[in-house]
From TrEMBL, chain A:
Its main location: membrane. One of its GO terms (molecular function) is transmembrane transporter activity. It is found in: Cell membrane. Belongs to the binding-protein-dependent transport system permease family. LivHM subfamily. This is Branched-chain amino acid transport system permease protein. It is a multi-pass membrane protein. GO terms for cellular component: plasma membrane. One of its GO terms (biological process) is amino acid transport. Keywords: Amino-acid transport, Cell membrane, Membrane, Transmembrane, Transmembrane helix, Transport. The chain crosses the membrane at residues 16-36, 42-65, 77-98, 104-131, 143-161, 194-214, 235-263, 275-302, 309-329.
TrEMBL record, chain B:
The keyword 4Fe-4S does not apply. It comes from the Bacteria. PANTHER family: HIGH-AFFINITY BRANCHED-CHAIN AMINO ACID TRANSPORT PROTEIN BRAE, HIGH-AFFINITY BRANCHED-CHAIN AMINO ACID TRANSPORT SYSTEM PERMEASE. This is Branched-chain amino acid transport system permease protein. CDD domains: TM_PBP1_LivM_like. GO terms for molecular function: branched-chain amino acid transmembrane transporter activity. It comes from Desulforhopalus singaporensis. The chain crosses the membrane at residues 20-37, 44-62, 68-91, 98-120, 126-149, 170-189, 222-242, 254-280, 300-323. GO terms for cellular component: plasma membrane.
Amino acid sequence: MFQMIQKSFWEQVRKFNSLAGISIIITIVVALAATIDRGGYLLVNTIVTGGMLALVSMGLALTLGVLNIPMFAHGEFFMIGTLVGYYVFNAISAYVGSHPESSLVFWGPMLTIVAAMIIGAVAGVITELLIFRQLRKRSRENWVMNAFLLTVGLSVVLVNGHQLFFGADFKGIVGYYSGPSLAIMDVYISRDRVFALIVAAVVVALFWFFMTYTRTGRAIRAVSQDETGALIVGIGLNGILMLTMSLSCALAAIAGAGLLFMYPSYPSIGLEPLYMAWFVVILAGLGNVLGAVMCSFMVALLKVLTIEYIGSGWDFVVPSILIILILIFKPSGIFGSEVRGVLDK
Amino acid sequence: MNNSTQTLNPFDKLLDLTCFTPLGLLSLLVLAILPMVPPFNQEYLIRWLISAAFIASMAIAFDFTAGLINIVNFGYCAIMGLGAYTSAILVERLGLSPWLGMLAGGLAAAGMGLMIGMITLRLRGIFAACLAWFFGLALMGLATKLVWLTRGPMGMRVDRLFDTPSNVPFYYLLLAMMVIIYITCKWVTRTHMGVAFMAIGQNMEAARTSGIDPVFYRVSNFVLSCAIGGVLGGFYAHYYGILTPDIMHTSKTVEVLAVAYIGGRGSLWGGAAIAFPFIFAMELIRSSLSDLPGINLVLYGLLLIMVMIYYPGGFAQFFNTYFRQTGNKMASYLFNGVAADTK
């Protein structure tokens, strides 16, 4: 297995003289320059935002690549994550308040994340069964556009369902871990950010391992490359599609719960992660999961730099103009291939 | 169905020229006299009528792109907002007449449409929709942040078009605009251009092989649709009298999109026909169930999902299947008119 990892690593390195490699190098250089100019917190912000963005956009890339659904409701699964995180963590902290010695002080936040993950996965399964499978049964022509409009409707339902059942007020927490910030070479990082970063890193690593080295992961990739071919070699299509959907929703929900200390839960909270994830996915090339991880950090850097140097509120304008410019010259995205898929129709 | 050598009486000729069926004309007449009929002559009901007519006009123009060349212009309301802001700024800062302002708004939006059309040319389907969406986001961000020009989220005061407290003149103006927009779009679809649009929408490669230049047709479709959006935006600014960047929000586009698709893609009239009952139902649910905020939007999302799964053709397909194929001669005339391909 070690040799396999080594081999794939060198394959990645060989790609570096392509556009992807150039843009990664530019990103790293710009990040370092900005860090030297304004201090280390920029780098920390970029990595925390990028890590969580990676979770959301990996899920989005997965639904695009495997299910061919341009998911407009992905931010709403982020919202479900924040909601679950809020209620579970409040229950846990009430328990901790009366039992200060319990081990939940340390394990509570992780339990919250796991709960959000499970609920997100269940929500994904329900969505697949109730909506997308019904559509798939009825028509496959013009599938991409129909699925897109379906997700628009789903997003409206979920956002307003939140408002209907849970109210439109902000539901936030002070923080997962109390205690002083950690200091690394003059940069103070709150414990929550470290926690979010670790969660993102672990989940991305696990996910990458799952997709690359397990049979199920290989089956998912096979379906994304060629559905008919996957059927011929005996892959159960419906199971894989459901698994993918629940996986991508679970990823978004983990991101929501992990960022609860920054984004309090309210009905339209999912919109911003959704925009950002779409930026990432379009930039990376539709359906490219590993490219999405890299591009998340680029977009996060772009956003952090825009807020730092131009001012907050511009963080939709500058990245979207830049992405439009990139798309003009490279319509299939930085990591995209020139192969035309179903999404081009 | 009908051959054109047959002589038409003047009424049918007029109908044919304006692309209306007798039923369409009838419903238009009903809409025209509605503000004088007792339950509808209250100010708040007229306001509902205006917002319904506004959504209807937007849906027609939106469907012109989405239904014909099969590209969802997901930044449509941002382009409408661009028209609104252009008009408002010209009128407020330079003292232009609001009518000229509306035209200028249409021109600005058409310019934007030209740009988006040119840029999305190389992209297809969902890529083009996303690019238009990002344009919309950028425009909305600009409207929020250029406070010196647009006053940002504080809102910009705009003079109203007519100097009366009543909303009735606005309603008639909008109704006239709706009819003009409908006739324009329908005329374009009747020419060879419309055929080309549909060919591109169904299969671009095949259209290109049969000698249709997608560049020209896609761009001109975008320009026309966006120009209409801009003029409507100008109307919006001079009707509400206050303009905030909120009108460029994606959720507004979603509203127009839902109406257009529930009405039936590619039909042009479906969205307009469905907008009036739809908006009224939404407003009624909202005002009668005010202790359940958001229930009207939940229902409308569910409706969109249901239509997309079970009846992708929308109301237009339903109408064509169950009403137009009738054997009754009288009813057939009412629903179809003399010429086959009209409203």
